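Team,

Forwarding the record for the chain on the shared tracking sheet. I've put the sequence and predicted structure together so nobody has to dig through attachments.
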Amino acid sequence: MCRWWSRRSSMDKSTLNLEIGKNKIGIISIDQPDTGANVMNENFFHELTDILEDISTQKLNGLIFISKKPKVFLAGADLQAMQSSIGDDDKLRQLIEYGQKTFNDIQALPFPTVAAIHGVCLGGGLELSLACDYRVASSEAATKIGLPEVMLGILPAWGGCTRLPRLIGLIKALNFILAGRPYNSKYCKKLGIVDAITYKDQLISKSIELINKGTREKKKDLISNLCSPIISHFAKKATLRKTKGNYPAPLKIINVVSKGIKTGKEKSLLLEKDAFIELVNTDVCKNLIRIFFLQEAAKKLKYDSIIKEKISKAVIIGSGTMGGGIAQWLASRNINVLIKDISIEQLSAGLKNIGNLFVKGVLKHKFDRPAARKSISNISVTTDDITLKDRDILIEAIAEDFNIKTKVLQQLEKRCSKDTIIATNTSAISISELASKMQRPEKFIGIHFFNPVHQMKLVEIVIGKQTSQETIGRAVEFVKSIGKLPVVVKDSPGFLVNRILLPYLVESIRILGIVGDVERIDKLMVKFGMPMGPFRLLDEIGLDVAVHVASDLADRLDDFNMPGNFDTIMVNKEFGKKTGAGFYTYNKGKRMEVNDNLVSQLQLSIEKEYTDEKIVNELTQVMVDEANKCLYEGIVDSSDILDFAMIMGTGWAPFRGGPIQFSKK
């Protein structure tokens, strides 16, 4: 029998354990040693193959797969092993073929099989589950099911593209695979991926119920077979609109799934394998896998300091867009949140926005209604000058004005305990200068969330000259504990992300003064890979905010120059989406058309020879130049961290790997 690894030593700890009960039902327990997760590595497949060989000679009534981990069923393939094999196509083929054969062996067992899922079930974990006759999932929030391969620039190649459309139909399968996100068990049952939902401690008994039904009768989806070309056509059109052709994996997935469902399983699995080998060797895949590992590193970031008890109580100062967004996120992560503002009216508006965020979260299956209600109960509000000594952390999110922030922070510091972390969410004001006005500057730090808070994973942890190692360590652990990704940066004008982003936005206004076409520039940068063009982004940020931050950078950086047309922006008080007009006009928040009034005032001269290539080159080069300055100044420790921060903080063309990685090409 072919194996793509050497046999493991008998001294190795086991990941899989088979127990056979008196009812002749086997239970394979998954518990990878010395780690909190279960991944599908060499030992996993070796042990699974041995177990399947053993039970093939036994007359079992059924087989159940279950995890002993508290929050993970199977997290998918061992990406480090896969990454080390990139470039060795023969080894990758063996890896895929062996995984496909193993799961085929599960599907071919002469008795019913059940995947009893509690916790994360992703990628290869779901593909193993799809090879079983039934899937039963726990009702707990920890259970998340998905096929995230597209996010890595590849596709499910252990049968996911073959079995899922045969189970739930072509359209639902394509939507699920192309989304690349995990879903809760309730939604997966609605799709038909999960057969039953139960409590965690009843997974075995529910699995036995399903086993007693016998093996599942396979049904043919004639509609998907007949309509496959039409479905594929519209799926490709929608995908190209979204990706601009920059990501090959989604189109490859559509081809493999739509062709595979019309042919036999063997041919479909071959399509999976060939497509995987093609995709895994692309620069896009290599860049996306690099980002994945940088994301994992951020989750595990540690600082050498004594960490006190976990932060469980926070006070947010300000209930506006950022304050409310931070409060909503913390409450959803089971943090007790007190919001303080200067008036009931402002608090009421803030609470309304928070409520809307929870409603949208429920509609998008981020959490269910009971979880949303529980999260809302974590929030209280006040306008009074009450003691804050029971609060572990204070996060200020008020107006971007140094004097106002200083006055408020000085007053609040007196009401906090000596151990309370005092943090500001400022996007540009110097942390060191603010700290110099505080009684305990060592407890002061920047914790800069990005807008919208519920969507942006990155948080900049900005350290001032006097910030203590303990405060940094506690801030890092806090950010990780709420499910965000921390990046530690030194205090500098604009910190890291805005320091690189603002020159790009300012440069776009300079170029607009020359070419006079907002939509042309926006479309070019979206085609390059940015989530939106610079002018749409400016409208979202608010032109007044952008001017304020850019002016601050110009005052504090010797080589940051403002274009001659920049001051014009503030004249008409058209600050973007929030005022109904900026570079575009808006009706009830919906973007309508270019605001010719503002654009005409910004034009300095028209140069017809300004090519598309020149526009893109100049806008990207200004970011690359600023990124290199940040590295030279030591604002972050490495180019990897810088690229990661720009991708997670701005959506900077992930498939290109970030500004530094892009510049190497």
